[in-house]
């Protein structure tokens, strides 16, 4: 099994103090050349790597902040990043952006890289794969300012910026119901994400209010959030193959919502005549799709802006932060042709 060596391990093996090891590894002039050689050779032998968390927290402020998102090309996140940068640069901070591509492993690597560059704080939107958030708890306890936005972590006591996911999903589903659609399927992101669970609950609540029985076959997860086209194609094909095929789709993110139209068109499904569509997207071109898309639009720019203001305030605070804020934004439901009424007048 791979063993990760620490400064304490090296000090014990060589019979030296941890402070001597630390100075030798940093190239301090106060340590003799022979000792430096002894320590560095042994460190190389055991493949020692400095702890990026410790390095970051010991260093002076870098006036940079790290951003962790699933994908910059995602319409929501590109707009949120614009909001982040508008505040950061005006406040004298650089922004380092990383993408997880919905991978928990890549998220961890990205965080370690950001810490190795001594960022002063983090703005984080979790990857779809992430279930173990103890790493963030450790960082928070060590004093690193963290603000979660959009995809938040409920179990960690820190600042959070997100939307009312339940209400947004409820309203979009109810719009479809009021337009005459009763067999509404739900294509969503990974169930690991709190936003997926909250949006599912909103969808279910709308069905219950209108006394529509939930069909488990109408619930399909895309664990990569539509980033893998074949995953979304498989989800749609599964729904189209059902004996009691749905007459509408409610989708929960940019990639899934905008990806559905071309896939349905390729399979000869007319929207909204054969199947209606409503979903979350911040695409600026939603109005120009054929048909135009009914969407739940999030105030992404404002969310990124507020999250950054909160983070910088935390970074520059003279005292330890003991009280944390949760900011919940409202969304805008824009009704267009893709959800046009199925009721015959």
Explain how this protein is built.
It is a single chain. By secondary structure, the chain is of the alpha/beta class. It has three domains: about 5-50, no CATH class; about 60-165 and about 300-330, Rossmann fold (3-Layer(aba) Sandwich), CATH 3.40.50; about 165-295 and about 335-340, Rossmann fold (3-Layer(aba) Sandwich). It is built from twelve helices and twelve strands. It has helices at about 5-15, 20-25, 35-45, 50-60, 75-90, 105-115, 135-140, 165-180, 195-210, 230-240, 255-265, 300-315, and strands spanning about 65-70, 95-100, 120-125, 145-150, 160-165, 185-190, 220, 250, 275-280, 295, 325-330, 330-335. Strands 2-1-3-4-5-11 form a six-stranded parallel β-sheet, sandwiched between helices. Helix 5 packs across helix 12 (about 300-315). The chain is elongated, with a radius of gyration of 25 Å. The model has no long low-confidence stretch (mean pLDDT about 90). One of its GO terms (molecular function) is transcription cis-regulatory region binding. This is LacI family transcriptional regulator. InterPro entries: HTH_LacI, LacI/GalR-like_sensor, Lambda_DNA-bd_dom_sf, Peripla_BP_I. It holds the Pfam family LacI.
């Amino acid at each position: 099994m791979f063993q990760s060596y620490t400064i304490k391990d090296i000090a014990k093996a060589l019979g030296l103090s941890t402070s001597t090891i630390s100075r030798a590894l940093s190239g301090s002039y106060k340590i003799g050349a022979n000792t430096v050689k002894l320590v560095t050779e042994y460190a190389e032998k055991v493949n020692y790597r400095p702890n990026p968390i410790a390095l970051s927290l010991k260093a002076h402020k870098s006036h940079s902040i790290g951003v962790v998102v699933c994908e910059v090309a995602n319409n929501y996140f590109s707009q949120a990043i614009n909001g982040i940068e508008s505040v950061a640069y005006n406040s004298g901070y650089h922004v380092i952006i990383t993408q997880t591509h919905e991978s928990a492993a890549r998220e961890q690597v990205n965080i370690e890289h950001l810490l190795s560059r001594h960022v002063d704080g983090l703005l984080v939107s979790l990857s779809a794969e992430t279930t173990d958030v103890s790493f963030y708890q450790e960082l928070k306890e060590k004093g690193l300012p963290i603000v979660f936005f959009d995809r938040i972590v409920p179990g960690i006591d820190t600042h959070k910026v997100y939307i009312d996911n339940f209400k947004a999903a409820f309203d979009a589903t109810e719009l479809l119901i009021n337009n005459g659609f009763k067999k509404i399927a739900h294509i969503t992101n990974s169930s690991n994400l709190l936003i997926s669970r909250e949006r599912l609950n909103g969808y279910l609540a709308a069905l219950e209010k209108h006394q529509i029985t939930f069909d488990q076959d109408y619930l399909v997860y895309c664990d990569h959030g539509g980033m893998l086209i074949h995953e979304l194609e498989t989800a749609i094909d599964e729904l189209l193959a059902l004996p009691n095929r749905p007459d509408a789709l409610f989708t929960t993110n940019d990639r899934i919502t905008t990806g559905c139209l071309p896939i349905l068109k390729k399979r000869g499904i007319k929207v909204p005549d054969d199947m209606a569509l409503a979903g979350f997207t911040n695409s600026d071109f939603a109005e120009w799709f054929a048909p135009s898309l009914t969407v739940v639009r999030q105030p992404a720019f404002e969310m990124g802006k507020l999250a950054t203001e909160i983070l910088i305030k935390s970074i520059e605070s003279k005292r330890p932060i003991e009280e944390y804020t949760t900011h919940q934004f409202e969304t805008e439901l824009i009704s267009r042709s893709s959800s046009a009424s199925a009721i015959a007048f």
